[in-house]
Write a structure and sequence with these properties.
homodimer, 247 residues, mainly alpha, Heme Oxygenase, Chain A, 69% helix
């Protein structure tokens, strides 16, 4: 961008970032959704993605620690409820663990994060720190990958159910739930950003924040691809898939 | 303390801190509860204390940003619900604003915090930062002034209703509610601290954290006393009570 945008033009610019940089375009996801991965590679993906899922409530709490407006906190806290659960609902992290359970991964091992790739942890912690240290406008903007998430979730549900015998409906509960949650959340975040990014510098910062977030997601798949697809060299202590009869 | 304590002895040491340093012992509170303050001085107290109330959810979010254990987050988030409200419940901050409303203070002025004492804001922000930057054990320990809060709330309710014609039941709703909430919260926090402070260094850090918190509360009353009781010199831009027919 080179000049101040209207709110609508800003939304268009943000959506363009998704078209160019969202991780649905990453070769790892094309393999995953197209049924081209072995069982152990899907395990590695779910194990590493757990690190991200588990950190989201901390990311949202870090953002909330800077939110002086009670009404916005009352809105934003719903994201923590979504992932940690509230009352009887056990939330999205528990649904993710249902996926890793179903993939035959030991739950304590998954939760320990000991087998996750260091690059995954670095990317995730960068996101948590971003949310807690940047201005609220940028922290909120970094959540806007949710604009692009429903399409990838729908593609993932269909692709994984169709292509992998070891994936059934119970394992994709996380993604089904996100089909409802993510659009609700990103409507608020998008409206906030369109309303509050009123200078060129703010709009530039908002765009950079979303680019940063797409980098956080993309970098996780780069490291997964390197470790488990090609050249398939997991670093020391990282998860190593056991031999498995097939997909 | 000079040696490792049993969990019970640690609890005793923590309770002793309350007996020696909790702000119920501060001369400002003795004046407040004893009916010795003018209307404008009670206004100044409620206006400044709002700064503290409004920051508590940010403090708890800052603490939660470091909580890696989902079960503990699911417990701790209840504190944010208490103060911000959840769903139809508008929470403790709104109940505090009912008090400042009832004391004739303009709500937008109160919420702007423009009339609050700088020393109040500094103390409150020190608490928010402490909760977000210290180890979780210390951050949780700093909440333990709740062990001592029910007594001061009960004393405050009785003393203010009895002594001030401008205080009625509707204005003390915040304190009535805290009579239930604070004991529930501090049971969890006390059990956590007793379980996790297992070295001398940890126990010392826990005790220091609670002392720090009593300092945060005490410092607010020192500055109130200076500004509005004796010598009664509010700093530039601070709230100045209007003349009022009496208490």
């Amino acid at each position: 961008m080179t000049e101040l945008l209207s709110p609508e033009a800003l939304e268009y610019a943000l959506r363009r970032i998704g078209e160019e940089r969202y991780h649905n375009r990453h070769p790892f996801h094309k393999l995953l959704h197209g049924g081209k991965l072995e069982f152990g590679q899907v395990q590695a993906w779910a194990l590493n993605r757990y690190v991200y899922q588990a950190a989201i409530p901390r990311k949202d709490a870090a953002l909330m620690a800077n939110l002086e407006d009670r009404e916005i906190r009352r809105e934003w806290i719903g994201r923590i409820h979504d992932h940690d659960g509230l009352g009887p609902d056990q939330g999205g992290i528990e649904r993710w663990l249902k996926l890793t359970d179903g993939l035959g991964l030991d739950r304590a091992y998954v939760m320990s994060q000991q087998g996750a790739l260091p690059a995954t942890k670095f990317a995730v912690e960068a996101y948590v720190r971003f949310a807690g240290s940047r201005p609220t406008l940028e922290a909120i903007a970094s959540s806007l990958t949710e604009l692009f998430a429903p399409a990838i979730h729908a593609e993932r549900i269909a692709g994984m159910l169709e292509n992998y015998s070891f994936i059934d409906e119970s394992l994709v509960a996380y993604f089904r739930k996100r089909l409802d949650q993510a659009p609700r959340d990103c409507r608020f975040a998008l409206a906030y950003v369109k309303q509050h990014a009123r200078t060129y510098e703010q709009q530039k910062a908002v765009i950079d924040a979303l680019v940063f977030k797409t980098d956080v997601l993309w970098a996780q798949l780069d490291s997964l691809y390197f470790a488990y697809v090609e050249p398939a060299l997991p670093p020391p202590d990282a998860f190593v898939p056991a031999a498995h009869p097939g997909k």
